[in-house]
């Protein structure tokens, strides 16, 4: 009898629950359009880079990619050790901390150097720096 009563109550409340979830929030479209105009780059600006500036930016991007690859390599080792023992070795934690430090330093250089930060989203880079600094604090707790 209790199962039948529960089923009837659940069936009666289904339309109410479905209508409660069908609302939506209006998003202000003026704030996003202003942001996209700030980050737009004209073709003239992009082609106005000197060959030295292009080489500098390319070499920096290679350094940034290598630092990211180093973090990924140490992370793979970290995962293997964690799967084997349940925790990573101390030298692996130190290696990851050093790789994260190098990556954060490159991101800071990207924000401060005018040749590098002309065509980047500075808020996105700053959020990456904040994320990796927080990650570094967590790594310090493991050591």
Instruction: Provide a count of the helices.
Output: 6
β-sheet strand percentage: under 5%
Q: How large is the radius of gyration? A: 25 Å
* Strand tally: 0
Secondary-structure element series: HHHHHH
Q: Which regions have little confidence, pLDDT < 50, spanning 5+ residues?
A: 32-37
The assembly state of the depicted protein chains is: single chain
Approximate shape: flat
Overall pLDDT metric: 80
Question: Percentage of helical residues?
Answer: over 70%
Question: Please, could you describe this protein's structure?
Answer:
- There is one protein chain.
- By secondary structure, the protein is an all-alpha fold.
- It has six helices and no strands.
- It has helices at residues 2-20, 29-38, 43-47, 51-85, 90-112, 122-142.
- α4 (51-85) packs antiparallel against α5 (90-112) and α5 (90-112) packs antiparallel against α6 (122-142).
- The chain is flat.
- 4% of the residues are buried.
What's the short version?
By secondary structure, the protein is an all-alpha fold.
Secondary structure blueprint with pairings:
Blueprint: H1 2-20, H2 29-38, H3 43-47, H4 51-85, H5 90-112, H6 122-142
Give the key terms:
143 residues; mainly alpha; 6 helices; 79% helix; flat
């Amino acid at each position: 009898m209790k199962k039948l009563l529960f089923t009837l109550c659940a069936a009666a409340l289904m339309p109410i629950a479905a209508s409660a979830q069908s609302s939506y929030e209006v998003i202000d479209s003026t704030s996003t359009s202003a942001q996209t105009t700030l980050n737009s780059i004209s073709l003239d600006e992009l082609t106005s880079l000197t060959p030295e500036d292009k080489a500098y930016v390319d070499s920096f991007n290679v350094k940034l990619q290598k630092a990211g690859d180093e973090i990924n390599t140490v992370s793979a080792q970290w995962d293997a050790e964690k799967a084997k023992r349940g925790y990573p070795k101390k030298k692996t934690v130190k290696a990851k901390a050093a790789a994260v430090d190098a990556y954060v330093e490159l991101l800071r250089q990207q924000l401060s150097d005018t040749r590098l930060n002309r065509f980047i989203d500075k808020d996105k880079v700053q959020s990456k720096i904040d994320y990796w600094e927080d990650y570094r604090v967590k790594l310090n707790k493991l050591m």
